[in-house]
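To fix ideas, we reproduce below a protein record of this kind.
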Amino acid sequence: MTLDNTAAAYGLVQVVFAHVTDQLAYAVFTLKQKSDSSASFEKVFKCPFGRLLSTFEDELRQFSDVSSLDMTLTDLRNACQELKALSRWRNERVHARVRHVAEGLALFNAETGQRLSISYVECHEIVQRLVKALVTLQTEIPRLVSSLDFDKEFDAFWKEHIDIESTD
């Protein structure tokens, strides 16, 4: 067996996917902890990717009525859709059947038996798409978290001032 450019590129897909998974877990943990201080770091970071992504999408729903976050939410929802597609691509290959063919080893879908494509160019494209989704997460999550902080501070400010005025 030889290590070629495709195998190396596929290895990079796996590394970047793991990084995206960690960023997604961090986002879920951070958002959960804002509403539930007992949220467990260990429990969140042990979740498989699919469950993290679903939980993240659930967490995004709390911002649906915040019009100032419309673009942020659109970008994050688009990133979630992209990550679902990339996860399917990755999972098909991670759980593939491997067979010897004339040109070497080939991957086949474990459920359908169809041969799966995999090439250096395809893996490079997948890495680029993963990085784009990663950048969206890293850029937009702080906006969500700061909006939660702002809302809490704003509510506390008004509660304090209303309480002060009502005691006068």
About this structure: The chain is about 70% helix and 5% strand. The mean pLDDT is 88.
